[in-house]
Amino acid sequence: MASHEMDARKERILRAIIDDYILTAMPVGSRTISRKYETGLSSATIRNEMSDLEELGYLAQPHVSAGRVPSLKAYRLYVDELLSGGALPQNPEAREFFSRRVRQVEDVITSAAQAISEFTRYTAVVMMPKQLELRVSTLQLVPMPRGAALLVIVTDTGAIRDTVIHVSESLDGDALYAISRMLTERLQGRTLQEVQEMLGAYSRQMGGDAQVLQGIAELAAQMARQSATDSVTVGGSHNILNYPEYSDVEKARAFLSVLEEKEKLMALLSGPDEACCVRIGPETGMPEMADCSVVTVSYQVGRGHHGYVGVIGPTRMPYGSVLSALSAIGGALTDMLGE
Amino acid sequence: MASHEMDARKERILRAIIDDYILTAMPVGSRTISRKYETGLSSATIRNEMSDLEELGYLAQPHVSAGRVPSLKAYRLYVDELLSGGALPQNPEAREFFSRRVRQVEDVITSAAQAISEFTRYTAVVMMPKQLELRVSTLQLVPMPRGAALLVIVTDTGAIRDTVIHVSESLDGDALYAISRMLTERLQGRTLQEVQEMLGAYSRQMGGDAQVLQGIAELAAQMARQSATDSVTVGGSHNILNYPEYSDVEKARAFLSVLEEKEKLMALLSGPDEACCVRIGPETGMPEMADCSVVTVSYQVGRGHHGYVGVIGPTRMPYGSVLSALSAIGGALTDMLGE
DNA sequence: GTTAGCACTCTCACTCGTTGAGTGCTAACC
DNA sequence: GGTTAGCACTCAACGAGTGAGAGTGCTAAC
């Protein structure tokens, strides 16, 4: 049974089949391999090898007289080789794609998702870990025309959130600054939860500026809510329509509807502790994604926390280039958010 | 030839056909009308009327033994009646859908697009008119941890933009406020263009805070760029997959790719001076949208300027409910942005 | 003016050959 | 023993042919 073990030639052939299938999305025949890929072997020999590879579980036939299609096990092997091969191919291009305006953490995340999806032509997902116990660092009111003011809350982690509130028209910039100072002094270092609680007490003391206090309370509540849950962003969701495996509208719709369920998305992305992770088909642990692959790369944000950037697409995916694009963006995110 | 003119009964039948077609997307037969809609007429009579309606150009037959399908002319009549019928049906629900967080103009726009698409289940597009000559109202630096500061620019129209810049760690909140005051004093009332020009001069005078000035210049440039062009946002783009007319992936892709071209989108939306506008098929003036309809409602923003909210979908569309949803959101937008 | 009845048309779904790609196997070859 | 040529075989994809069903148009009766 010597021929039923993997050898170098089998691996070469298998790789050629995977490459061709990734390219064409069509079952690959023995003739194709012997001609398009310079193996120096005839189609008959390739056929024998393919037959062995099928028995080994690396190939499958959609039907008897079609070519072969790589199995999940084949993708797994391919990816493992890719990952064990040490450093991923660098990809400065991908990084270049990601040089957008950067406003606050959320913007970084969405730009990253956009950049990845544009670059890879797949659907990109970026996830931010939840941040509990956010503490207020600064609280400031910026004057706006017509009795409005922009309330800005900055946390110790650098998260920014703001909202427009109405204030008495008699308050000028200096007055607003004085209020800001006072508020910052009292609220600095408090968690968002504490802020909400404290405002109840204050509102009795200083009835006049109830509007301001209410605005703060609302914004703090909103920030707390948002930061307490992991947040996740999708980019390029309709890129899947470019791939023949989704030429059935129903499939495309099923795919897109999963993307709208944040919980599922997060389940898809998070989990692994490794820097890179490729989950193929059922490995995603989600039945409805049984013929998709998820490639994720983690990035550092703050001390020890980490988020994930990922790509979701058909199992037939150029894992190498996707991984290198992802790790480029992951690196950029670590640089920007890691400190 | 009396029977070849439109009469009340023909209109009633036509309306029933349109309603049924909007509901089912299937050619409507005479029997269906005589049974599902309480006309008190037999299918044969309906058939005669349908034949007349076809001759009048309101109906078409995909093939001889299929039912009838409303023509563009029929939709046009239907919509015209709807519009001339005076006030649109109010739609408080739609307005409720649109009660989200509101940060700055852009956020309002995107929330509006989201709300409309979620409510109507069609693709929504919202457009903001360009705002030239934006003048600085306030400019403020908000302290952030670790030598960073949030630079906020507020314009006279209430547009807000911010960015994180690096500043000397020695500057505390009061120092930043002092700088903010100084900057506001000098730049208030200037247009964004002027601000950019003036900063060149300043940077020579006060070398120390070159970073701050550069940050301002960049942000001003960005604001100017963004506000000088009309901006447009899409929501619920993949809602079209819900409709059988797009069960062909190629059509869906063509549709989605138009949505990505901002210029085309703007051409689709803008134009009419009326408050409501329904363009059916070729009336959109865009060949690739020949079997889509575009429904737009305008809203006021600032003095005289107006933007548009719209829905894009198949010609078979419940124009009535779409219009009322749009005008509800349009009203809300006018309230929020109009002043 | 309205309706019942009937012949007619055309799509849709299904079946049935035909075609062609690709395999598996065997026998010859190096 | 490994490699290759040749050939029979299989099965999806395509096209033509067929029957059923939906819906019409027309005519004649009410």
Radius of gyration of chain A: 27 Å
Measured by residues with Cβ under 8 Å of the partner chain's Cβ, the largest interface is: A-B, 41 and 41 residues
Tell me the number of helical segments of chain A per DSSP (H or I, 4 or more residues long): 12
Secondary structure: helix percent of chain A: 40-55%
How is the biggest beta sheet of chain A arranged? 5 strands, antiparallel
Strand order of the largest sheet of chain A: 7-3-10-9-8
* CATH top level class name of the largest domain in chain A: Alpha Beta
The counted number of beta strands of chain A is 10
Which second-level CATH architecture of the largest domain in chain A applies?
Answer: 2-Layer Sandwich
Mean pLDDT level of chain A: 85
Distance between the termini of chain A: 56 Å
The CATH superfamily of the largest domain in chain A appears as GAF domain
CATH topology type of the largest domain in chain A: Beta-Lactamase
Classification by helices and strands of chain A: alpha+beta
What are the segments of chain A in which pLDDT stays under 50 over at least 5 consecutive residues?
A: none
* Strand residue percentage of chain A: 15-25%
Task: Report the oligomer.
Answer: homodimer
SSE succession of chain A: HHHEEHHHEEEEHHHEHHEEEH
C-alpha geometry of chain A: elongated
The domain count of chain A comes to 3
